[in-house]
């Protein structure tokens, strides 16, 4: 990366408006699923809330995997050779955890959605490491932290609403 690119890369702590809007829209599936589940009540004979809840947990697992893909991309394009291997190992972990937790969610929805939500809420720890290494834009944490905490909380809340 040239010096000019580094300066432009680090400029500004406010995320681009497009990233803010698209990130916020990414929370909508979980908000809608939680609303539908709570609005339908706890009637076990209503299949729609359960199906929506299952789709929402699938969505949360996919987002966790997506984050790992972002980290893989950052590692492969911006990290030094000595950092790359370790960051790529970290980048694979979200897909493995997401698959495991989603796979177990039918039998243990509260536990799995709670763990999935906690893992999502903890992903900014990796993002912070990437920020410290200057591998992501200066605004990265201002976008990632609120989105991860919100999605994590919604995922945990959905798990409790599914019981």
TrEMBL record:
Coiled coil: none annotated. The keyword Iron-sulfur does not apply. PANTHER family: TRANSMEMBRANE PROTEIN 69 (PTHR15887:SF1). Keywords: Membrane, Transmembrane, Transmembrane helix. Pfam families: DUF3429. Signal peptide: none annotated. It comes from Sphingomonas oryzagri. This is DUF3429 domain-containing protein. The chain crosses the membrane at residues 20-40, 52-74, 86-102, 138-162. InterPro entries: DUF3429.
């Amino acid at each position: 990366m040239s010096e000019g690119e580094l300066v432009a890369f680090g400029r500004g702590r406010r995320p681009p408006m497009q990233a803010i809007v698209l990130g916020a829209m990414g929370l909508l599936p979980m908000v809608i699923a939680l609303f539908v589940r709570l609005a339908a009540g706890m009637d076990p004979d209503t299949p729609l809330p359960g199906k929506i809840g299952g789709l929402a947990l699938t969505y949360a697992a996919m987002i966790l995997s997506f984050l790992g893909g972002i980290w893989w991309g950052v590692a492969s394009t911006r990290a030094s050779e000595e950092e790359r291997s370790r960051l790529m190992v970290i980048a694979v972990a979200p897909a493995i955890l997401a698959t495991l937790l989603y796979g177990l969610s039918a039998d243990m929805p509260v536990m799995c959605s709670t763990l999935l939500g906690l893992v999502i809420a903890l992903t900014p720890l990796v993002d912070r490491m990437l920020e410290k290494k200057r591998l992501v834009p200066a605004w990265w944490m201002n976008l990632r932290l609120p989105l991860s905490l919100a999605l994590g909380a919604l995922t945990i809340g959905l798990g409790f609403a599914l019981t």
